[in-house]
Structure formats: C-alpha cells, structure tokens
Design brief:
The structure is a homodimer. Chain A is built from 10 helices and no strands. Chain A is mostly helical. The first copy, chain A, has 2 domains: 54 residues, Arc Repressor Mutant, subunit A (Orthogonal Bundle); 128 residues. Chain A binds a DNA duplex through helix 3. Chains A, B: This is AcrR family transcriptional regulator. Chains A, B: It comes from Isoptericola halotolerans.
Chain lengths: 197, 197
DNA sequence: CTAGACGCCAACCGTTCGGTTGGCATAGGG
DNA sequence: CCCTATGCCAACCGAACGGTTGGCGTCTAG
C-alpha cells in the first residue's frame, strides 16, 4: 500500500464531518473519528493540534466546498434570491454542513467564527457588495454571514414542514425557502445601519 | 436544616435546565448538575432514573412553565399571530428553553418528543383547532408543534439580526419575529393536508 | 548505500464520565 | 419510645475520554 498523506488527511476530515454532524462536538470522541476514518487517532493531533482545532478545520473544509464557485449571476435583489436558491440546493445535497453550523452556533464559544474564516467568503462578499450597493466590506461580510445562516435555519424549518405535511413536494419546499430567505435578506438589508447614507 | 424533598427535586431540575441549556446533553456532566444544585448526584438517579430521562424531565418541566396559561385570545389567524407574539415574549424572558429545544432537536433521537409529551399541549392544541378549523386533534397537535418550533427558530434568527444590526431595538426585533412566525404558520396551514375539505 | 526525517500505529497516561453501593441520619406510625 | 422506611451523601466502580509516547517501517537527500 503506497503512502499518501493527503488522502489520510482527507479521510480524517471526511470522517470528522460525519461524526461531528451526527453527534456534535462534545458528543463525538476522537477515537470514534479515527475508527471511522481507518486511521490512528494520533494523526489528528499531528495534523490539527487538538480536538477543538480539528473541528474548526472540518467546518472550514466543508464550508469551502459549500461556497466554492457559488457566485451571484447578475445584479439586484432577484440575483440574491437565485443565489440563495442555489445555496439551498447545496445544503440539501449535503445536510451535514447545516448540522455542523447549528452545532457550532449552539455549543462553541464564538458563534460562526468559522464562517468568517472561510476562504471563499470575502470573494462572495465583494459580489454581494457590488450587487446590493452595501458600502464597505465589513458589512457585506456580515450580510453574507446572515444570509448563509438564514438559509441554514430555513433548511431546518422545511425539514419541519416535511414532518407536518409529508406529502409536500421537495420542489415546493425549495421555492418556499427561496422566497423566505430572500424576504429575510431584504429585511436584513433594511434594518442594517449603513454609514454615509 | 429541615428535610424538604420537593425543594431538592426543584433545585436539581433548575440546575439541570441551566447546565443542559448552556452545554447541551452530551456536554453536560451529571456531576456538574449536582454540584450546581448543591445536591449529591445520586439523587438524580433516585428521582429520574438516568441522565437521559433526567433531561426529559427538565425539558418537560420548563415547557410546562412556558406554555402554562398561554391561550388564544379570539379567533382567526390574527389571534394566532398574537399568540405567537406572547409565546415569543416568554422565550425572550427565559432563553434557556429555546436552547433546550434546539439541543433536543439536534442531538436526541426522537425530535421534539418532549414537545408532544408536555401536559399543556393538548389543551392549547384544542384552542388552535377551534380557532383555525383544523379537523382533528392529531393534526392540531402537529400544527402546535410546528408553531412552537418555528418560534424557536425565530429566536435564532433574531439573535442573528441583533448580530448584524446591533443598534436595532428589541421591540423592533420582536415585531419582526411575530410577523415572521405568523407568515410561516399560515404557510404551514396552507400546505398541511386537510381531509374532508 | 546509508543516515535521518517522517508517516504511522499500538499502547499507554491521568482524568472524568455515567452509574452504583453501604451506611448515616431523620421522619413518622405503632 | 422503638422500628422501619426513606432522604441523603461520601466513596467507589469500570469504561471511555482527550491527549502522549516510543518505536517500527518507509521514503528521500547526500
């Protein structure tokens, strides 16, 4: 068997994503992750330092994949709505990410710290800023953060909707989420203080 | 010091509510709860059986207090909106309950099992059924569940709103939540299948 | 060809976990 | 006034926790 360190790292991150999403930070043991990955747990400490920092790496990794190449098409608030829709599709394709974000906001000290850290963030934020005429990068970053989290919450809400109304088609729930996220994003824009305006 | 068993139970339930709300089920140790309550941890097992069943007791206890005497005033969808507003006020007065619900839905097997178990539930559900012409008790119970959970999520949403717009007054955030919850409750009613209609 | 750096693992460390046990003190019925 | 049931606690249990260590095998620079 050839030696492949990047594959080892990847297997650990994948297993970490599964385990943390399923049982949270406190509920997941480092042993379980290493067992799931088929790798000795000492590798986690060699690669990532501590359980806590490993969680950050896992979340950042998954968020990078979630936001990679997800750009606004066009300008105006409709573009924001379509963008939220495609973001929704990615959440639906990989429910673990939504759970990871929920866990982080509940049990970790700094809420959504990883969201602000994600590498694709500033790029998407600048697009949002251009399309929506938000003055500076800091507030655009905040806006992006809020929209991401809104869609996350909306995803949970539709899961509930599905529970209440089992027959509802997934497509209908998707459009409901898009409109919901768009409306809330507009409201967020509205209440957000804009200096120099 | 006089012996007072109900006070011992109460102190454990209170401490359990604080600890579970702060760090979740897996993140809370039975020792920490007993230390917080100033009671030996063996009492938890004598009174409630296991850590898991103790969590159920804590959540049911807090939910009973949350929903106690919270009735619909009047009829129609506006009444539902006002009801959601008062529910929101109670959530705001005791944020622990919202966190407990969020924890349960994330990390425990059966989502919202305690919500369906709460003693005040059927009473409130019958009021909702009358006001909104929902056919049978089962679907009314589901409706109540969804509304409660919607408002719970709304709590997360406003926490985010506060983060994005720190200067926004709490009152403004409340009305936003009420409208939000009302609209979503109406949507839930809309997509919910109603037999015999 | 060889020396050392490095990926990797088995085994181990002290601590904390959920849960149990034995006994002391007290309350209340006879 | 005693006897039993019960509230309560200190101490304990095996297991599992996050984290570390020593050494084995394998790549690679010189």
């Amino acid at each position: 068997m050839p030696r492949d360190t990047t594959s080892t790292r990847e297997r650990l991150l994948d297993a970490g994503g599964r385990q943390f999403a399923a049982t949270g930070f406190a509920g997941t043991s480092v042993d379980a992750v290493s067992r799931d990955a088929g790798v000795n747990k000492e590798r986690i400490y060699a690669y990532f330092g501590s359980k806590r920092r490993f969680f950050d790496h896992v979340l950042t990794h998954r968020l990078d994949g979630l936001l990679d190449g997800l750009d606004l098409d066009g300008h105006g608030e409709d573009a924001l709505g379509r963008w939220a829709g495609r973001l929704w599709d990615r959440y639906a394709a990989d429910p673990d990410v939504a759970r990871l974000l929920a866990w982080e906001s509940l049990e970790l000290d700094e809420p959504a710290a990883a969201v602000q850290r994600v590498s694709s963030c500033s790029e998407v934020a600048s697009h949002l800023r251009d399309a929506l005429a938000v003055p500076d990068d800091a507030s655009a970053r905040q806006l992006l953060l809020s929209v991401v989290m809104l869609v996350t919450s909306a995803w949970t809400l539709t899961a509930l909707t599905a529970l209440v109304a089992p027959g509802t088609a997934a497509a209908a729930r998707r459009t409901a989420v898009v409109e919901h996220a768009t409306a809330l994003a507009r409201a967020t824009l509205l209440v957000s203080p804009r200096p120099g305006r």
